[in-house]
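Ops channel
N.P.: pipeline sanity check, posting one input/output pair.
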């Protein structure tokens, strides 16, 4: 939905970008991210809570927990970044935004029944139930959360009792 170009992205800039996306498309149910400093800062965590967004952090060294983003990053690297020599950040912003628009609005994707992401999102928005999960929900702005750790299982003695300390 957006690619921000800079030498270093800090949490205020990430919050600004995410705020614009939430204003335009609505808040997702969960935000999946790595444990980078821009995503685990106090300001970012406060913003996430204020927006009512859940978190699903990727464990360090386990990129497969966010396979869709890793796949996109590989395509972005191979089809854009590796083919260009940027003379300035301004040039990088223009070229990268052109690639992003082409990727989302012109290029058909086999995983989306050979539709563009924009066409697929429009189609799914008309047909997906409000509580959908998986790819259809992700396109509509939600996501199917996968917790980093499973909740503790209660033994038979603890199931009926409230937790006390």
């Amino acid at each position: 939905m957006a690619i921000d170009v800079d030498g270093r992205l800090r949490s205020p800039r990430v919050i600004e970008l995410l705020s614009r996306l939430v204003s335009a498309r609505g808040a997702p149910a969960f935000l999946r991210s790595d444990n980078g400093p821009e995503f685990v800062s106090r300001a970012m965590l406060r913003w996430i809570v204020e927006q009512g967004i859940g978190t699903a952090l990727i464990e360090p060294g386990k990129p497969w927990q966010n396979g869709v983003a890793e796949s996109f990053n590989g395509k972005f690297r191979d089809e854009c970044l590796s083919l260009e020599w940027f003379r300035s950040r301004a040039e990088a912003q223009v070229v990268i935004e052109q690639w992003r628009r082409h990727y989302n609005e012109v290029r058909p994707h086999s995983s989306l029944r050979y539709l563009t992401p924009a066409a697929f999102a429009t189609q799914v928005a008309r047909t997906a139930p409000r509580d959908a999960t998986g790819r259809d929900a992700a396109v509509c702005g939600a996501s199917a959360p996968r917790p980093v750790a499973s909740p503790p299982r209660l033994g038979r003695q603890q199931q009926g009792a409230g937790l006390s300390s």
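N.P.: looks fine end to end. The mean pLDDT is 80.
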